[in-house]
Write a structure and sequence with these properties.
Elements: H1 5-14, H2 22-34, H3 37-53, E1 55-56, E2 63-64, H4 70-73, E3 81-85, H5 91-97, E4 103-106, H6 124-134, E5 143-146, H7 152-165, E6 171-174, H8 190-198
Parallel strand pairs: 3-4, 3-5, 5-6
Antiparallel strand pairs: 1-2
Helix pairs in contact: 1-2
Length: 203
């Protein structure tokens, strides 16, 4: 079979995207190939503009096209409570819940010694500097909520950061972990049951 180098290259690059396997990458590549040239040009322009204009928020390290992101400049959000997330994409489901109206801080990962991700590779020092900067102002940070994954890396990150934050006397909490609403307990795995029991609430 005669291979088209340019097409193969596109499939290879597309397959590097999260959740995109070789078959899906192939379908996307053929879709781009059969689309009008104007679509390819628009896609190229959008990707170039994305890399040129989107940057880290200087306050919370979320993605933004300004110096400071929307969440950090919204005057209607609480300034004394920060929600810690691993990645910018994690903010979306939290916002969709409409249950949190504070500020955010994005770590850009979680501590994972096996993967070579150390505390200094994350935006932990930047959080400490942020807390320190606001400590003696009219709006110091009073609570930090950890909204990180319930896995070994997430647990390690929470444990490490809790120790780092202890001297500041800030209230630390973590989003509840356990049985989803509407679930049948017969079908819940052991680890989830364990988390639900550990993080049980008074009724």
């Amino acid at each position: 079979m005669l291979k088209i180098q340019a097409l193969e290259k596109l499939i290879q690059e597309l397959s590097k995207l999260p959740s995109i396997g070789p078959k899906t990458a192939q379908r996307l590549a053929y879709h781009i190939l059969k689309s009008p040239v104007s679509y390819s040009e628009s896609l190229t322009h959008a990707l170039t503009e994305l890399k040129q204009k989107v940057q880290f928020c200087t306050e919370c390290f979320n993605y933004t096209d300004k110096e400071v992101c929307f969440y950090c400049t919204d005057i209607y959000r609480a300034t004394d409570i920060i929600c810690i997330v691993e990645e910018p994409v994690d903010i979306t489901p939290i916002e969709s819940s409409q249950a949190f109206k504070g500020r955010y801080h994005v770590l850009h990962g979680a501590i994972s010694p096996l993967d070579g991700v150390r505390p200094q590779d994350l935006k932990i020092d930047e959080l400490l500097k942020r807390i320190e900067r606001l400590k003696d102002t009219a709006n110091p940070i009073k609570e930090i909520i950890f909204a990180v994954d319930s896995d070994l890396e997430g647990d390690t990150t929470v444990l490490y950061m809790s120790r780092q934050l202890q001297p500041y006397g800030i209230k630390l909490s973590r989003i509840a972990q356990g049985i989803p609403i509407g679930s049948d307990i017969d079908y819940i795995d052991d680890k989830t049951i364990s988390k639900a029991l550990i993080y049980r609430v008074e009724v």
